[in-house]
């Protein structure tokens, strides 16, 4: 658990309420958007001030209620959609890319994402979208067919989206993006997805889904030979830790939960946690011998509740996380 930048925001999160729009620091605004039908409750999209207009980081669900809540949040801040000049997407999950195209149609903003999370690129290399990955990964993780189908069907209810967004700019590696007097440093930070990025501006690192103030980071589904999401995440957390340790950022603003101060300490805490759980997963797999699957290993790892008390949805997350821990050996 980290040190909140604004105590009221953390208290609101712990009371399971959606926070109000407000400033993170000078030049950075947070607009929480309720997520209808999702256990996450809300996603926080961020606005960066620039002389060229507002730069939006992430874009909620493609849902009429999300779009209305976003516009209402902007109005609370005295701003409008037409002021947005760019939409920077941390990754391609449905609660982050949803209304990016609506913003583009309303304001002419450019939409930017990393190549590894571009939908056309994912299809071209055989990775496919999230649900394609999940459909293949569940049986590969050793999940019995009937259980795998049930888990997949439940995932479709919250994760289905068109996956047809065409970005205006596709990034490779790390990039500096300039909008008027603002330079946004974009860092490729895989682990949660292959093309996840974090955005650094005004002394804040916008961490997307990579580094929350509470709880672990959900790892990407390993879907191609050579994928190693756990190793990727450890490298990502090291990068963010070093940014803070060298004084390049002074706060973190994630897409869920609340903004916090102790960035280097939190990155170190997560590094230790995920390194330890990866080591434990590999140890358990070794006791099962060659060909041990996530289905074999997951019940023996530590989760928020005992394995037998987890519902199908939570077990699905746990199994995919375990598969990612095991990937890459």
Structure description:
It contains eleven helices and twelve strands. It is α/β, with parallel strands linked by helices and 329 residues long. The chain is globular and about 60 Å long. The chain has helices at 7-14, 64-76, 94-97, 100-107, 119-124, 130-140, 145-159, 229-245, 263-288, 294-297, 312-326; strands at 22-25, 28-34, 42-48, 54-57, 84-88, 110-114, 169-171, 175-179, 182-188, 197-201, 204-208, 251-254. Helix 6 runs antiparallel to helix 7 (145-159). The longest helix is centred in the C-terminal third of the chain and has 26 residues, at 263-288.
Please work out how many helical segments DSSP would assign. Answer: 11
Q: Would you count the extended β strands for me?
A: 12
Rg estimate, integer Å: 19 Å
What helical percentage do the residues reach? 25-40%
What fraction strand? 15-25%
The end-to-end distance, rounded to whole angstroms, is: 30 Å
What order do the SSEs take from the amino end to the carboxyl end, as H and E?
HEEEEHEHHEHHHEEEEEHEHHH
Please state how the strands of the largest beta sheet are arranged side by side.
Answer: 1-2-3-4-5-6-7
Average pLDDT, all residues: 96
Poorly predicted parts: none
Q: Estimate the global geometry from the Cα principal axes.
A: globular
User: For the report, how would you describe the main beta sheet?
Assistant: 7 strands, mixed
Oligomerization status of the protein chains: single chain
User: What would you call the structural class?
Assistant: alpha/beta
